[in-house]
Write a structure and sequence with these properties.
Helix content: 25-40%
Structural class: alpha+beta
Oligomer: single chain
Order of helices and strands: EEEEEHHHHHHHHHHHHEEEEEEHEEEEHE
Shape: elongated
Radius of gyration: 42 Å
């Protein structure tokens, strides 16, 4: 479909060979005067046509939603001439009811309404006793929304061949529309015999049951529904059919339902049509299933994090130490290293230059396992001194601060961004971007700070030197 923005885009101009018919729009399902015509598509500027983009044939443009089909006008005209000519030749060579129905369909498809009406009269005069021809033409007229003439053809076909199912069905639909439900049921009795589901389409029976229910005749509704269940047992699992039957059973006060026991299935959750679940229940269950899977995945990831922690060992004794976790195999550490460990209470046995037992409790909350980086440090013999340094990043930063940790065999830090490695000298980014990360601090207006902490072991005395093993940056803290 063409469209414009501020008057620039594409637009149709002109209408030739206009044909209007009253029918139901295939897009919005509203009845209206659908228009078909030849026009030209233009590229427009301020709605002024500038560049022609070709002749088009607009087909069945709806006045309500403006939806339509479009074809190249020249190609449409050529196809119309070729197909109608081929149909005429076929009918002239082999004049039969089938070829007449085919040619009539071609004429209606290309909206040659007058020509189709003339041909229809000619064909009916040529085959005055052919009920099948009248039924076929009536079907095509119904598709073209010519219901009045279609009804007459169904009546004529029924008069010629009273047992023809298609004729009986066509007349039955007219009876339903007029409210003559019992007469329609008599016409459709061929579809109520046992085994009819294997020979006939039972949709008319379903539609008749709907008319009975809307008329408040629930006993007849349940009779037809029971027949549908016998012939097509699978519909007993469909939510729409079950709800339909349930309304009539409730209206009659039936205590024993004709419906089979509902069999739930996972496949029914993902089937829009023919599902045994109502739409709201399907979406609720799908949403709950998705939420459950997400919860299980998050819980599994959280448990994985809990089980796969590391314990940092800072050895300032000057000689290697051996560390045993919960009575397991000892691990030799010369300077600094890590030990895989899970959260919880543990007993660490340190041997070598010192003989020490340390009970530790590694613990982090459920949410902190995703949003924080705790660091646990074991200090054999209490020999190392840990330096926690706070660093501020800002246009006019505050001086860094230190916190020395002395004589602690085990220290737990709630959050360290870069354990034992150097923090960056500066942070690049706009002032707005840095403020959006909400570093918390108090300082001069217009600055964009970030406070961080360094963590490193320091030497206690010249005879026990220990090189700097790094630093760390912890998460932002802000006071606005």
């Amino acid at each position: 479909m063409p469209g414009t923005i501020n008057g620039i885009g594409t637009h149709y101009y002109g209408k030739k060979n206009l044909h209007v018919r009253t029918a139901i729009c295939g897009a919005c399902q509203r009845q209206g005067n659908l228009s078909s015509y030849d026009t030209r598509l233009w590229f427009v500027v301020v709605f002024i046509p500038i560049i022609p983009l070709g002749r088009k044939r607009i087909i069945d443009q709806c006045p309500s939603c403006t939806r339509h089909r479009v074809a190249d006008a020249d190609a449409f005209e050529q196809a119309k001439q070729l197909q109608i000519s081929a149909g005429l030749d076929q009918y002239r060579r082999q004049p039969s009811a089938d070829s007449a129905i085919g040619l009539h369909a071609q004429l209606l498809a290309f909206h040659e309404i007058d020509q189709a009406a003339d041909f229809r009269r000619t064909a009916l005069e040529r085959f005055p006793r052919h009920a099948g021809l009248r039924v076929g033409l009536a079907h095509q007229l119904e598709d073209a929304s010519e219901y009045a003439e279609a009804s007459g053809l169904y009546e004529a076909a029924l008069g010629l061949e009273p047992d023809l199912p298609a004729a009986r069905t066509g007349v039955a639909f007219r009876k339903m529309a007029n409210g003559d439900l019992d007469e329609a049921r008599v016409l459709l009795n061929f579809a109520e015999v046992p085994g009819a589901g294997g020979e006939h389409n039972l949709a008319p029976i379903d539609i008749l049951a709907g008319h009975y229910q809307r008329a408040g005749r629930h006993r007849e509704t349940l009779e037809l529904a029971a027949h549908l269940l016998r012939e097509l047992p699978e519909i007993g699992r469909q939510h729409a059919f079950r709800a339909f039957v349930g309304r009539s059973e409730k209206a009659l006060g039936v205590t024993e339902s004709i419906l089979p026991e509902r069999k739930h299935s996972v496949r029914g959750l993902f089937r829009a049509e023919g599902s045994e679940y109502p739409a709201w229940q399907r979406w609720a269950m799908i949403g709950g299933l998705g939420l459950g899977l997400l919860t299980i995945g998050l819980a599994a990831n959280n448990e994985y994090i809990r089980r796969h922690r590391v314990l940092n060992v800072v050895n300032a004794c000057g000689v290697p130490v051996e560390v045993s976790l919960d009575g397991g195999a000892a691990r030799t550490l010369s300077n600094r290293g890590t030990i895989p460990i899970a959260e919880g209470k543990h007993r660490l046995r340190i041997t070598g230059p010192v003989d020490q037992t340390v009970d530790v409790d590694l613990e982090a909350s459920y949410w902190d396992r995703w949003f924080k980086k705790p660091v646990w440090v074991l200090n054999p013999g209490d020999e190392a001194v840990l330096d926690q340094k706070s660093i501020y990043y800002a246009k006019n930063p505050r001086p860094s601060t230190h916190r020395l940790i002395v004589g602690a065999p085990f220290t737990a830090f709630p959050h360290i961004d870069y354990p034992f490695e150097s923090p960056p000298e500066s942070i690049e980014g706009t002032s707005r971007a840095l403020r959006s990360r909400r570093p918390s601090w108090s300082g001069p207006r217009g600055t964009t700070p970030k406070r961080s902490w360094r963590l490193w072991p320091r030497t206690v005395s010249p005879h026990r030197p220990l090189a700097n093993v790094g630093s760390a940056v912890v998460r932002f803290r802000m006071n606005s």
